[in-house]
Design brief:
Layout lengths: L3 H19 L4 E2 L10 E7 L5 E10 L4 E10 L5 E3 L8 E5 L5 E6 L8 E6 L6 E2 L7 E6 L5 E7 L23 E2 L3 E2 L5 E7 L4 E4 L8 E5 L5 E6 L12 E6 L6 E3 L7 E6 L5 E6 L13 E6 L2 E6 L8 E6 L5 E8 L2 E8 L5 E5 L4 E7 L4 E8 L2 E9 L2 E4 L5 H4 L2 E2 L2 E8 L5 E8 L9 E7 L13 H8 L3 E5 L9 H5 L8 H15 L3 E11 L1 H10 L5 E7 L15 H7 L7 H6 L2 H4 L8 E6 L8 H13 L3 E6 L9 H19 L5
Parallel strand pairs: 1-32, 35-36, 35-37, 37-38, 38-39, 39-40
Antiparallel strand pairs: 2-3, 3-4, 4-5, 6-7, 7-8, 8-9, 10-11, 11-14, 12-13, 14-15, 16-17, 17-18, 18-19, 20-21, 21-22, 22-23, 24-25, 25-26, 26-27, 28-29, 29-30, 30-31, 33-34, 34-36
């Protein structure tokens, strides 16, 4: 007699086995996945609160570049619509306040300058609105939807020769060069008002000063903006907030007089007050600083410093619709969270926090916000915050993440030799056996005033997928731990930060996480600088990758864009030579370095020019230490060409594998 239950059971098991075989096995992330990763940016809420526009950049592998198109998602997250799809790219999408149009900036149809285009929300093709002859830095709709405030850069007449041979740069400014912008001649950015119906452009400001960050008053009569109108703006960061009536020939009024920086003005809904960010420090240079949320009357006067006691950097101030509270993003010990200040009593409330990172913030309705959120396993997506609870709106990265097996991420605290407590983040390859000692790479953040957070970190994920534990160290100089922690390295580079890196190394070795004989270190910008300082201090690292760094600091004066910082923090080289020489120890004591080191730089970097990497490469080459120099053609401080981004990670892995992984027989 047939055993029917047994046959059914066997059939079910066989079916389950077949099903299991069809489930694709997840794989480690690889440098090629750089081409698959999309990026969300610039979310904007419609006037009725029902839709959000955003930019979505994707890699065009044929052209080896990123291209941004515009998308729109409904507030309930159920509908997603692609608005543009052109090879020219679009950015800065903005809803008109009456809700009839979506505007954006694009250099379509062979244009050499970005122009503003209008798209009727009822449908149809976008139409070009402007025919600007100079660079558009920013634009803002007036409340009545009839005008636009434009921020335009003065024309570069020196580059208008009939031939392709550019006229010589004629430079007489104190600050004469900047990354991406290049050499800086005369020329400022000014405010204009553009009438949409008449296509008429009126000039609001002229002269040698820049005017930026315009925001319309709710009644449309005035613009608040930011300007540095000191005698020589190149020599300080003393920006103030001004207002001007929005018509030709109007005079401006200065509202703030703090000797530090005042910026990011935002009008209250009733137009009676202006919220803004004020620097904690006064004086000439504000590198080691954290912004404070301030509120003043629309006519100026003494401000209320709402976040002064918080001792954490705040940004993205946004008024709630009722004008009674102001939302902010707060950077705090490896997190960026959403907070809220009540105007009546100054009370601060955490709206939503956790081991994740919020960026962007827009008020929707009472208690509701639009934001962008990333966590260690997910690149940034758009979210609604409703009564303190995030609700995901976009799913851009689902396809990217689906086949990937990512590193585990956790935080830890280490103790430095001088007793400092340092907050760090550790990534370990997926499915790492317990108690297995791993080759470990310390990948150091730049800044120095920034912090590593519990957010998706592509570079560190790729390094970890290569079989490495990866450590991110929030060394002294980082923000998120209070102003004193940030200022601890003032005029003392390469000292406390190195102690903090070595303290984190001691921790992971002591805990059995890292193999002490297979430690590597690397980073970009100040992370590259700290790589150089660290390998000149300690020989425990068996491989290093220093990107966009410098060591002979004395030689960087007048070469990079930081002359103002140097003179205010270190003093002029001819007056304080000993200090400059002390901070140049990685180069001047290069014979202490035993670590094989690869140096990398962008060919056109004016932030930390390639000469800083070239000098160290030449020194190690002369000393017989294994070294390489990689120069990325046409690149500035940030590497933007997708194939170069992949190449950089490929080279990291090849270099670290060569020196940190045992040879297999």
């Amino acid at each position: 007699m047939t055993n029917r239950p047994l046959l059914v059971s066997l059939f079910a098991l066989a079916s389950l086995s077949c099903f299991a075989q069809t489930v694709p096995k997840k794989r480690p992330i690889t440098p090629k996945d750089i081409y698959r990763l999309q990026t969300i940016s610039d979310p904007q809420l419609s006037p009725d609160g029902k839709w959000i526009t955003y930019g979505l950049s994707t890699v065009d592998t044929t052209k080896d570049k990123r291209n941004s198109d515009l998308w729109m998602v409904s507030w309930d997250g159920k509908e997603s619509v692609q608005l543009t799809n052109s090879p020219d790219g679009e950015s800065k999408a903005r809803f008109s306040p009456d809700g009839k149009y979506i505007s954006f900036v694009s250099a379509r149809q062979g244009a050499t300058k970005g122009q503003i285009w209008l798209m009727d929300r009822r449908g149809g093709e976008a139409k070009k609105l402007t025919d600007l002859k100079t660079d558009l830095d920013d634009y803002v709709w007036s409340p009545d939807s009839k005008r636009l405030a434009l921020v335009l850069r003065d024309p570069d007449y020196a580059d208008s020769a009939k031939t392709k041979v550019r006229k010589p740069y004629v430079l007489d400014r104190y600050h004469f060069k900047a990354d991406i912008k290049g050499y800086l001649e005369k020329g400022s950015v000014h405010l204009y008002v553009y009438d949409i119906a008449d296509k008429k452009l009126d000039t609001l400001t002229t002269g040698i000063f820049d005017e930026t960050s315009p925001v319309w008053s709710p009644d449309g009569s005035q613009l608040a903006f930011v300007s540095n109108r000191s005698e020589d703006p190149d020599r300080n960061q003393n920006t103030d907030i001004y207002v001007i009536d929005a018509h030709k020939g109007a005079s401006m009024k200065q509202l703030t007089n703090w000797s530090g920086s005042d910026n990011n003005p935002v009008w209250s809904p009733d137009g009676k007050r202006i919220a803004y960010l004020r620097s904690t420090a006064s004086g000439n240079f504000l590198m080691y600083d954290q912004p404070i949320l301030a509120v003043m009357n629309r006519d100026g006067g003494e401000p209320t410093l709402l976040s002064k006691a918080l001792d954490r950097p705040v940004r993205n101030p946004r008024w709630a619709k009722d004008g009674q509270t102001i939302g902010v993003l707060v950077q705090d010990d490896r997190q960026t969270y959403v907070g809220n200040y009540t105007l009546s009593d100054g009370k601060f409330t955490k709206v939503v926090a956790g081991n994740r990172s919020f960026s962007e913030l827009e008020a929707v309705t009472a208690g509701n916000w639009l934001t962008q959120l990333s966590d260690p396993q997910t690149p940034a997506e758009l979210y609604a915050i409703e009564n303190g609870t995030p609700r995901r709106l976009t799913h851009v990265h689902d396809a990217f993440l689906a086949p990937l097996e990512l590193a585990t991420v956790e935080g830890f605290t280490s103790k430095s030799k001088d007793g400092a407590q340092v907050s760090n983040i550790l990534l370990k390859p997926a499915n790492t056996p317990a108690n297995k000692k791993l080759p470990t790479v310390f990948y150091i953040h730049g800044g120095p005033v920034s912090q590593d957070e519990f957010s998706f970190d592509l570079t560190r994920q790729l390094l970890s997928a290569g079989g490495y534990a990866v450590v991110a160290v929030n060394y002294r100089g980082s923000n998120g731990r209070g102003l004193d922690y940030t200022k601890a390295i003032y005029a003392d580079w390469g000292n406390k930060e190195v102690l903090d890196i070595l303290g984190a190394a001691d921790y992971v070795v002591e805990k059995g996480i890292a193999d002490p004989d297979r430690l590597g270190i690397g980073g970009w910008s100040y992370g590259g600088i700290l790589t150089n300082y660290t390998i000149a201090t300690d020989t425990r690292f068996k491989a290093a990758a220093s990107g966009a760094g410098s060591s002979l600091q004395l030689s960087m004066y007048g070469v990079d864009q930081y002359t103002n910082q140097y003179e205010n923090e270190l003093g002029a080289p001819w007056k304080n030579t000993d200090k400059w020489l002390k901070l140049s120890y990685p180069f001047l004591k290069a014979d202490r370095i035993k670590t094989p080191t690869m140096f990398m730089a962008g060919e056109k970097d004016f932030n930390v020019p390639a000469v800083g990497s070239e000098q160290m490469f030449q020194a190690l080459r002369s000393l017989g230490i294994p070294t390489q120099l990689i120069i990325y053609p046409g690149q500035f401080h940030g590497i933007t060409v997708p194939s170069y981004q992949k190449d950089r990670v490929d080279r990291y892995l090849q270099w670290f594998d060569k020196y940190l992984k045992p040879k297999t027989l």
